[in-house]
C-alpha cells in the first residue's frame, strides 16, 4: 500500500494544504502493519519552507517507521496548479540538481539496507513543468546519484541506526 507522507512537518503540511499530518500517516501505517500489509511511503524533497535538516528529519522518520519501501520525489512546480500559481506570484527557492542528488545520497545512507527504494526522482509532463527544468533529464539525475554514491564510497544503509 502506498502512503503519501510527503513531510513530517505540520507547518509544511498546512502550507501545502495536504489535509493530513504525521499522526494520520502513523495511524494508517500501524493499521496496515497489523494486517501484514506492506507499505511504501512517499516523501517530497524541496517543499517550500523546508531546509536540508527538515527533509532529512522526514527521511529519518521513514527509516524508523513500519514501512518496507520508499519513493523519493523532487518537488515539481507545474502550470495550472495552486502551487504553480503561488510560484508565479511569489517564486520560492527550488532545489538545484547538486543539492537534490546529495540529499538523495544522504537519505539512502540513513534508510535501512533492506528498505525497497521504488523511486529516486519523478517525472512531470514537459509542457506543464515550470520548475525545476533540470528534472526533465531523469537519466542524468540517476547517473549523477550513482556517481555521488561512488565518490562517497557509500551505500544504502551505511549510516542506518535502528534507534535514531
Provide an overview of this structure.
By secondary structure, this protein is α/β, with parallel strands linked by helices. The protein has six helices and six strands. Strands 1-2-3-5 form a four-stranded parallel β-sheet. A two-stranded antiparallel sheet has the order 4-6. Strand 2, helix 3 and strand 3 form a beta-alpha-beta unit. Helix 3 runs parallel beside helix 5 and helix 5 crosses helix 6. The protein is globular, with a radius of gyration of 16 Å. The two termini are 25 Å apart. The model has no long low-confidence stretch (mean pLDDT 95).
What is the ordering of alpha helices and beta strands? EHHEHEEHHEEH
Approximate strand percentage: 15-25%
Q: What is the count of helical runs?
A: 6
Sequence stretches where pLDDT stays below 50 over 5 or more residues: none
Q: Assembly type of the shown chains?
A: single chain
Biggest sheet descriptor: 4 strands, parallel
Q: Provide the helix percentage.
A: 40-55%
Overall mean confidence score, pLDDT: 95
Overall 3D shape: globular
Descriptive tags:
two-stranded antiparallel sheet; 4-stranded parallel β-sheet; alpha/beta; 6 strands; 164 residues; globular
Write the layout of secondary structure elements.
Elements: E1 2-6, H1 10-15, H2 22-34, E2 40-45, H3 52-64, E3 69-74, E4 77-78, H4 82-89, H5 97-110, E5 116-119, E6 129-131, H6 138-152
Parallel strand pairs: 1-2, 2-3, 3-5
Antiparallel strand pairs: 4-6
Helix pairs in contact: 3-5, 5-6
